[in-house]
Amino acid sequence: MSLIHYIRKAYRGMRVVYYNSARVYSHIVTTFKFHLNGVEFNSDFVGFGIPILDINMEGKFTIGKGFWFNSGKYHAMGGRQQQCYFVAAKGAEIVIGDNVGVTSIAIICHSKIAIGNNVKIGINTVIYDTDFHSLDARIRNRVPESIDGVKSKPVTIMDGAFIGGHTTILKGVTIGKNSIVGAGSVVFKSIPDEQVWAGNPAVFIKENSYTS
Fold it and tell me: Could you confirm whether the keyword Repeat appears in this record (predicted)?
């Protein structure tokens, strides 16, 4: 065998060692960050990479059993990857159920974002329960900008839902049980149980024949 073959094998071996080490390192650092942010969590979570957390002292973040996340460019090689962001403003609540897996997502919560059990959320998906800015230009364009009239509404993702990568989920949306959202969708309208939706804006495609 050629020298390059042995170099490639050594390189692959180093990658295995790195990723196994990263899992341990990620768990230790993330556990510390969870405690600093007052997160209620189970110690059985699996993390690759370090998430970014900003949980207000009067906010709440709860995570169920079997949580799995990939965070950052070395642990989510699907393009446009980033660290996971979990942000809860004053009085806001993020709730993640059991057996949930996410990759490079951003959850920005000003009201409540609830994710059920057995949910899978693809790379670079963002979930916003707020408009961030007033829809009234007179208010929005003040200097400094005023947050008067900024609207927030809860987002709910029901058990068994699957969200394709690069999806944007906006305020007031409920995604039904076992429903599927196609990659790259923009969801601002609630989706019933057991359906497939996709597009910008997301529209009904078909019934979810795998569960119905």
Answer: yes
Mind telling me the catalytic residues? 133
Cβ–Cβ < 8 Å for 135, 119: no
**What does the pLDDT read at residue 94?**
98
- How many whole angstroms separate alpha carbon 143 and alpha carbon 77? 40
> What CATH class has 3-207?
mainly beta
H or E element, residue 26: helix 3-36
Q: What is the SS3 assignment for 152?
A: strand
Q: Which residues pair with 195 in a beta bridge?
A: 207
Please say whether the beta carbons of 86 and 113 come within 8 A: no
Contacts of 21 (CB under 8 A, 6+ apart): none
pTM of the model: 0.89
